[in-house]
Design a protein that fits this description.
The complex is a heterodimer of chains A (about 450) and B (about 250). With about 450 residues, chain A is of the alpha/beta class. Chain A has eleven helices and 26 strands. The chains are: A alpha/beta (about 450), B alpha/beta (about 250). Chains A and B meet through α9 and α10 of A and α2, β7 and α3 of B.
Chain lengths: ~450, ~250
């Protein structure tokens, strides 16, 4: 028998997370209450359940202290050359020049900031790197990490402890912005956990559109993107979020959202995952008050052995609130997509609808859908519809009989399946998405 | 141009076409008639290269090629087009985008402007409002509109041989007139036509052009004749004709 005196031995995981926290806060000068939250995450870690079906050890992915690439970055011209080239390849510079929009880029775990911030601030839209925002805006404190419990899972606890980067977007009362704000995440280092924390505060009667782009164009062999968005949609405010993911097949992504929608507020999120990575698992929550509305649209194209699991719970807490959850999936190779959206009607005259459409492209590709509806009130209207199918031979034959090759015909059918769900996105993205679909199918045939 | 010799098609064990012989010269006009289930559509889909019928016996020569070696795309580019009996609806794909992609594959439409002009002019010719181009393929179109959309494509593609599978079924009188007018136009411009139909509906609009009429029964042509054979079918029905020609 071997006797081990374990009472004073710290669990190695906890020690590793503590080291990471120390590294992150060193030289970061973050307020004590923020560091205290990190330690809450740390304390929850050991007891928190491991709910992720893919990642057995979140600590394989080490977080890094914010690496600000250079001082005095005022515009895109001041970026390091390799980052600039990257943005060129992604067509982001072009987009930036076309519209006078805000653009914030998170590169690895460092924030690169553009000069557009000041201009936006004058218009009543504050967009600040989170590391800076926690020091500068007391309004943030009561909303930072309030919509979830760090102990709900190991990944939540880990995020809480080692979050780095992210943004605080604050839209002042009554401010309405037509032009969308852009936010890009890039991963460039290997074995890297990127854990940005985003807080959106839309004051009453404000309106904003936010576009989030995620990619990892340079080989990061083994990465984890563990982001968390907390959003507070004020009375009659309207927030429209589009998320474009084009992660390569070795990135694990765990985006999480927690959104509270006040009376008459509207929140819509469209996620286009044309490269959802090695695995993409998400379980967002939405709480909707009286006459509020939430709409979730997910468009996913999966390849190789990608594993996508989209949860999502909508709580219709107020009278006449509405929840919609639509998903469309194109599933190739040996990939697997699971959708399990749930809508809970907790107040009267609420309406909810879940729809799920999938095109399964070949044997080996798999789709499962588990729509969940529950009502604790008398007069709620809840419904769901699901259709899992494949490309019909007759459609292919028709297009081919008009001179298109099998590849062109397949591309057209898949684009036609996907595009109606995303036609609100800016033109630049649509053509990019079209290109990605074409390339994926080209690779298939 | 088209030489079908001893064709037998046997999808799923059941013989659908057998011992079929058929010849069409460039610019000729053929009418194939026969009761439901006699194999007319199978012939059309076999000629166009439907995967279900790709294993046939006998030979189908088109402009000197054996069709077995060509997929549906290549057959079209070689000049053989099938107008579908039931053109399928394709979700999310706008007609205009589809037509442009088809024109990309053809010669003579190098410039974007040429494509647009050709599409607009064909749209007018088939009596569609221009906004139809923003609809999805065959989505929300009536029976007659779908058949007209097939002919719109034929006008753009300008095939050497056009097989039309029941362009008159499920079509109202006004569309019927348009369809025969368009067939006249295509034929006058050199397209050979094989018209598959049950009835003589379209005949009136075809203005006494020279044609060969073939009657189908159980997967083969049992008798052929001139235009008056159609009137005979209209008057007597298929069964009596089959009895008279000892074709049963």
């Amino acid at each position: 028998m071997i006797a081990i005196n374990s009472t004073n031995t710290m669990n190695p995981d906890v020690a590793s997370i503590e080291d990471q926290i120390e590294e992150i806060i060193e030289g970061n000068d973050e307020p004590e209450w923020v560091t205290e939250l990190r330690y809450q995450g740390l304390r929850s870690y050991e007891e928190a359940p491991l709910t992720d079906p893919v990642i057995s050890d979140p600590l394989e992915f080490l977080s890094k202290h914010s690496e600000t690439p250079a001082d005095d970055i005022e515009s895109l011209d001041d970026l390091p050359d390799d980052t600039k080239n990257l943005l060129d390849e992604l067509g982001i510079n072009e987009m930036e020049q076309k519209a006078i929009t805000g653009l914030t880029i998170q590169d690895g775990t460092g924030m690169i900031d553009s000069s557009f911030r000041e201009k936006w601030e004058k218009r009543g839209v504050i967009m600040a790197p989170m590391n800076e925002a926690v020091k500068k805006y007391p309004e943030l404190r009561e909303r930072f990490m309030k919509l979830y419990d760090p102990g709900e899972s190991k990944l939540s606890a880990y995020h809480t402890a080692v979050w780095n980067g992210g943004v605080f977007l604050w839209v002042k009362e009554g401010v309405k912005e037509e032009i969308p704000l852009h936010l890009f995440f890039l991963i460039q280092q290997e074995a890297l956990a990127q854990a940005p924390h985003i807080v959106i505060l839309a004051e009453p009667n404000s309106e904003i559109k936010l576009i989030e782009g995620c990619t990892s164009p340079i080989l990061s062999k083994h990465s984890l993107h563990l982001d968390m968005t907390e959003a507070y949609i004020g009375e009659n405010a309207k927030v429209d979020l589009s998320v474009l993911q084009n992660w390569p097949e070795y990135v694990h992504t765990r985006p999480t959202q927690r959104v509270k929608i006040a009376r008459g507020g509207e929140f819509s999120i469209t996620t286009v995952g044309l490269g959802p990575g090695k695995s993409n698992i998400t379980d967002p929550r939405y709480w909707v008050e009286e006459e509020g509305q939430v709409e979730i649209n997910s468009i996913i194209l999966t390849q190789e052995d990608s594993h996508v699991d989209l949860g999502g719970e909508i709580h219709l807490e107020g009278n006449q609130s509405t929840g919609i959850n639509n998903s469309k999936a194109v599933i190739m190779d040996d990939s697997r997509v699971i959708t399990r959206g749930k809508i809970n009607a907790e107040s009267s005259n609420t309406k909810g609808h879940i729809s799920c459409d999938a095109l399964v492209m070949e044997d080996g590709a798999a789709m499962e859908t588990y729509p969940g509806l529950s009502s604790t009130v008398e007069n709620a209207e809840l419904s769901h519809e699901a259709a899992i199918g494949q490309i019909r031979e007759e459609e292919l034959f028709y297009l081919m009989s008009r001179g298109l090759s099998e590849e062109e015909a397949t591309q057209l059918i898949v684009q036609g399946f996907v595009e109606p769900a995303i036609d609100d996105l800016p033109e630049e993205y649509l053509s990019e998405i079209k290109k990605i679909i074409e390339l994926s199918i080209e690779g298939e045939m | 141009m088209l030489e079908v010799n001893n064709l037998a098609v046997k999808p799923d064990e059941e013989v659908i076409l057998r011992d079929l012989n058929f010849h069409a010269d460039p610019g000729s006009f053929h009418v194939i008639m026969g009761p439901n289930g006699s194999g007319k559509s199978t012939l059309a889909r076999t000629l166009a290269g439907h995967p279900e019928y790709e294993n046939y016996r006998g030979s189908i020569g088109f402009k000197g090629h054996e069709l077995a070696s060509l997929n549906p795309e290549e057959r079209l580019l070689e000049g053989l087009m099938l107008g579908f009996q039931h053109p399928p609806r394709i979700e999310g794909v706008k007609i205009e985008r589809f037509l442009k992609q088809v024109l990309n594959k053809l010669e003579g439409y190098e410039k974007e402007g040429e494509k647009e002009e050709a599409i607009k002019s064909a749209t007018r010719a088939l009596d569609f409002p221009e906004k139809v181009l923003n609809r999805n393929i065959n989505d929300g179109l009536s029976g007659g509109e779908r058949k007209r959309l097939e002919l719109l494509q034929a006008r753009l593609i300008n095939p050497d041989l056009l097989i039309l599978d029941e362009p008159d079924s499920g079509v109202d009188v006004d569309s019927l007139g348009l369809i025969s007018r368009e067939m006249n136009y295509l034929h006058d411009n050199g397209t050979g036509i094989i018209l598959i139909t049950h009835y003589g509906n379209l005949l009136e609009g075809l203005g006494g052009r020279e044609m060969k009429v073939h009657l189908f029964k159980d997967g083969k042509i049992v008798t052929s004749g001139e235009e008056d054979l159609i009137r005979e079918v209209e008057e007597k029905g298929f069964n009596r004709i089959y009895e008279e020609c000892d074709c049963n």
